[in-house]
Write a structure and sequence with these properties.
There is one protein chain. This protein has eleven helices and eight strands. By secondary structure, it is of the alpha/beta class. It has two domains: 152 residues, no CATH class; 118 residues, Nucleotidyltransferase, domain 5. The strands form two sheets. It has a five-stranded mixed β-sheet with strand order 6-5-4-7-8, sandwiched between helices. A three-stranded antiparallel β-sheet has the order 1-2-3, with no helix packed on it. Helix 5 runs antiparallel to helix 11, helix 6 crosses helix 7 and helix 9 packs across helix 10. The longest helix is centred in the C-terminal third of the chain and has 18 residues.
Length: 307
């Protein structure tokens, strides 16, 4: 193996199974956070160790080496040739002038806020400008991308409509549709649609999110009439005031929508369709990690490059 290639081999994505095994059942308090990341130097060292801690050979001179922190710069240099590694490159901290400790604390606050944290609230916590706080919130949500693993077993599917104005005649006028699935006792996925909500939208989403052959529970909406072609499909009829029947219901996904809408209304007040998917990703992420300490998950993801 070429020694110069070893610098890239340590940049490995974390998997959900590894994270769950590592932190399940843990609590992560502010006291623990402060002990782990007391200052900017500790934060930078954590990023460096996560990305380059196992590098033994310089990618420039190929000599076995150690990398030392360069004073007053956010980089590390080879002890022999001075080749520099920049741990913040390609991460959400790239080119930031905001102290790393503030970034890490913002991530911690996001992890312990069930309803999310707004840019205005973060502005007050950190004493930064609103523009800076908004950018930090946006970058942190980049860490909460939904995975590609498909759901299996019994899965509930439902759609909801967010934002806009409503009237009795046109209940969904100006609202943005979101479709989602929740594995009973498991994970969730959700996607914003900018083209309305029809069977043509619903089936491809279900096909991409749920393992073929699984059982899908829905309501009686016509957008799910093609589901039986590829899945075992059972539904309840809300129009007849039927909400559960022999274990068939959509209560779990409806509970998820309720949490999403209350959080948007109470914390963010309004979210434009342009950014709605990133907020949906955030609440899917928090739902999927509901049984573990989210802080270590987000902080460890923050130490990796954002692809």
């Amino acid at each position: 193996m070429n020694r110069s290639t070893q610098v890239t081999l340590v940049i490995m994505p974390l998997t959900t199974s590894i994270l769950f095994a590592r932190i399940k059942g843990m609590r992560y308090t502010k006291k623990q956070f402060e002990a782990q990341y007391p200052d900017d130097d500790a934060c930078l060292e954590a990023v460096f160790q996560a990305r380059f801690g196992n590098v033994k050979f310089c990618p420039s001179c190929a000599a076995e080496t150690k990398f030392y922190r360069v004073k007053k710069r956010q980089c590390y240099a080879c002890q022999w040739c001075g080749y520099q590694l920049f741990p913040l490159a390609k991460t959400i901290f790239r080119k930031t002038t905001t102290p790393l400790k503030d970034w890490f604390y913002a991530i911690y606050l996001t992890s312990v806020s069930k309803n999310g944290i707004s840019a205005k609230e973060l502005e007050r916590h950190l004493g930064v400008t609103y523009k800076t706080a908004w950018r930090m919130c946006t970058q942190i949500r980049l860490l909460m991308q939904q995975g590609t693993d498909k759901l299996t077993g019994i899965v509930e599917a439902d759609e909801t409509y967010v934002g806009g104005k409503s009237t009795r005649e046109r209940w969904h006028k100006d609202k943005t549709p979101v479709i989602g699935v929740v594995e009973k006792g498991g994970q969730a996925k959700a996607s914003v649609s900018t083209q309305g909500m029809t069977a043509t939208i619903a089936l491809p989403f279900l096909r991409a999110s749920v393992e073929r052959g699984s059982t899908i529970h829905t309501d009686e909406s016509i957008i799910y009439h093609r589901v039986k072609r590829e899945f075992t499909h059972e539904f309840i009829n809300h129009s007849k005031k039927e909400y559960a029947r022999a274990g068939v219901h959509t209560n779990t996904i409806e509970g998820f929508w309720g949490q999403l809408k209350r959080s948007i209304s109470g914390t963010y007040h309004a979210v434009s369709p342009k950014y709605l998917q990133s907020y949906v990703n955030q609440f899917v992420f928090l739902y999927n990690f509901r049984d573990v300490a989210v802080g270590p998950v987000l902080l460890e993801l923050a130490l990796k490059p954002v692809l």
